[in-house]
Amino acid sequence: MDLTLEPEQAAFRDEARTWLEANARHAPRVSFDTEAGFAAHRAWERRLFDGGWGVVPWPEAYGGRGADLVSWLLFEEEYYRAGCPYRLNQNGLFLLGPTLMEYGTQRQRDRFLRPMAAGEEIWAQGWSEPEAGSDMAAIRARAVRDGDDWVISGQKTWSTRAAFADQLFGLFRSEPGSERHRGLSFILVPLDAPGVTVRPIHQLNGEPGFAEVFFDEVRVPMELSTLGPIGEGWKVAMSTAGFERGVSLRSPGRFNTSAQRLIDLARSRADLPPALAREVARSWARTQAYDLMTYRTVGHVLDGGEVGPEASLNKLFWSEMDRELHRTALRLLGTAAPLTADAPDAVDEGRWLDRFLFSLSGPIYAGTNEIQRNIVAERVLGLPRS
To answer: N- to C-terminal Cα distance for the chain?
Structure first.
């Protein structure tokens, strides 16, 4: 892939940089895993949308710019370079949104995409269950057809953003007696529907970034709430997982900015040991490799290809790269590493520690790395099952 920017791409990048530099001061600096922080980040999503930067690769009808994926990568680079925060509605914008465009009806796209882009409706994931964590095929939460409605019962856990979100998407067993990947449907559920109970789960930092969601005969309309064919939810969910693992969830811009901050942190030390300097260089080199790998994937997609099981390689790489980068940062910080934002001597308001703690979840969410290695072995390398 030729990485030389076309004139219109360079103009797009410059326009994005100008807008972000002018508006970054309005971006929230608080965690979105609190009620007040969630509201502040929702307002930031609205500002992005109103400025035309909420979903640059989406069609204009849904609030986007109709830009290609290269332009999206350029925007992401400028977004994180400007110091803007992680996206509150990433479940919707980067996962459900593309899935709706592929599998949704026109009515569903018209109903959900624009409110999603504007931050009016924030989405939670409904994958994992107490007996079905990494193995989504073991899902038990059920959807029973009653006339034109689904009646949903069961439980989801570790639902990202669910503590304060408006909507949830997930898999439910819709064919009684079905097993494993068969008989599942991909269903959208409003979290304020009668019969829904949300119980926050507190993270290592004490904030409720996840939640358990209980469904007690929750009624939703089938036509509007079922994404893709009934009983073929596994296929739809794998499309969503491909977006998550392959391109959209973790853009290189996020890691490139972290690597540059790591270099700046290393330069601030007058006594940097050679071994630690090599770790910093390794982290920077890995982010550059990930950058190139992502552009290669995007080029493949723009040429008509698809993001297949190779997405699992991508997920393995970025999740472990992120963890190693933040471990290196904590070693650079030394005795200041455990200091939180309220400590007088905290470096960068304790963000390195906060993001290190979050990086520990990388090998778990979006499909555990153990499962991703199985996928790579079986579907990429063609190795037999043990």
So the answer is: 38
Q: Residue 236 burial by CB count (10 A; 0-12/13-18/19+): exposed, middle or buried?
A: buried
Tokens 């999206």 belong to residue: 72
Active-site residue, from 76, 78, 244, 279: 244
Of the pLDDT bands very low, low, confident and very high (cuts 50, 70, 90), residue 245 is very low
Q: How many CA atoms lie within 13 A of 238 on its CB side?
A: 17
State yes or no: is 207 an active-site residue. no
* Domains parsed from the chain with CATH numbers: 7-88 (1.10.540.10), 123-231 (2.40.110.10), 250-380 (1.20.140.10)
Please give the model's pTM, rounded to 2 decimal places.
0.85
Helical spans, DSSP H, in the chain: 7-23, 35-50, 69-81, 90, 97-103, 106-117, 222-225, 233-246, 252-267, 274-302, 311-333, 351-359, 369-375
Contact status, residue 214 vs residue 200, Cβ threshold 8 Å:
no
pLDDT tens-digit map of 32-68: 999 999 999 999 999 999 999 999 999 999 999 999 8
DSSP secondary-structure letter at 154?
A: E
